[in-house]
Amino acid sequence: MWWTHWWTQLKQAKLPLLWLGGGALGCAEAVKKLADAGMTVISSTHARGVLPDSHRASLRAFHNSPSVEAVMSGCDFTLVAGSRLRSNETRSWTLELPHPRVQIDIDPAAASRNYLMDNTLIADCPALLTALAERVQGREWGNAQWDALVRGAVVKAEQGLREQCGEYAKLNDAIDQALPEDGLLVRDITVSGSLWGSRLFRANGPLMNIHSLAGAIGMGLPMAIGTAIANPQRKVVGLVGDGGLSLNLGELATLAQEKANVTLLIMNDGGYGVMRGIQDKYFGGRQYYNELHTPDFTLLAQAIGLQAWSVDRAEDFAAVMTEALAMPGPSVVEVKMGQIGALKFAGPPQKTLY
């Protein structure tokens, strides 16, 4: 067949790496078979859950962790399936990906767009990965020692992220415990969403951790409502910041009117947290135009007829999230970050701002 050459290269590899993007969302069965055969798998944040976090071959989405980068550097083949290899997941394209590099993408314009590839296959990821998985017989790559290195790297990466999240790791865990296994997390572009929401919160299957592919804020609440209406039997957590919510504040009325099964989690830090972090990191701490005058979101939600809670202590995360997520229909939880503490985040790791 026309892809025999790179299949031969893959068979000759000892420790191949599979990088999954959104184009591989429909590939869960094939990816699991390849992972069972020993391919190490890392995903973009959009493709999280295609391979469950619990799989021994999963590096999850810890691209920027030194321990995970060390594991990837030990691989000897890279297969990129349906991913743009975005700047925020590759340290502004400075992350070294092992050769030979093979890319699968249905869009011809994606060929070597961000990384120079040794081979690009213009094809549908589910079809090609399924055909590839059918050729696998038992364990093809890696060994128990390599599996231990992978799991150790993930443990270190998660520990580092938990330390960065501070008290908010407890909020992540509270949602994890209270949200049913089939529950959905819908994230706006916000500090919490980009930090613990995107990489720390569980991913047991594809399209269970949903977010906008654009960088603009404000879509979280409308997306959460739409997700809940499309999945009426599943509980949805909508994760938003006060800045993003302010762009679509009127949709709180829609949430109440439609009785959508959403618990809206408002991370209120009184401004644009990402902008604060960027100005601290790149502009000597000079702060401009990132403070917001916002309403009392808890009172506003109650005025619209929504059940609402306000949390200003990390010790209360578990009790409040358990109560809110046990209640059918819409609800609001406002987290007062000013009282709990700031999240340290200044955008993805990169060499320079421009």
Automatic annotation (TrEMBL):
Domain Thiamine pyrophosphate enzyme central: 8-132
InterPro entries given in the database record: DHS-like_NAD/FAD-binding_dom, THDP-binding, Thiamin_PyroP_enz_cen_dom, TPP-bd_CS, TPP_enz, TPP_enzyme_TPP-bd
Cofactors: thiamine diphosphate
Entry GO terms, CC: acetolactate synthase complex
Keyword Ligase: no
Pfam families per record: TPP_enzyme_C, TPP_enzyme_M
GO MF entries: acetolactate synthase activity; flavin adenine dinucleotide binding; magnesium ion binding; thiamine pyrophosphate binding
Leading EC class: transferase
PROSITE patterns: TPP_ENZYMES
Name assigned to this protein: Acetolactate synthase isozyme 3 large subunit
Native species: Kluyvera cryocrescens
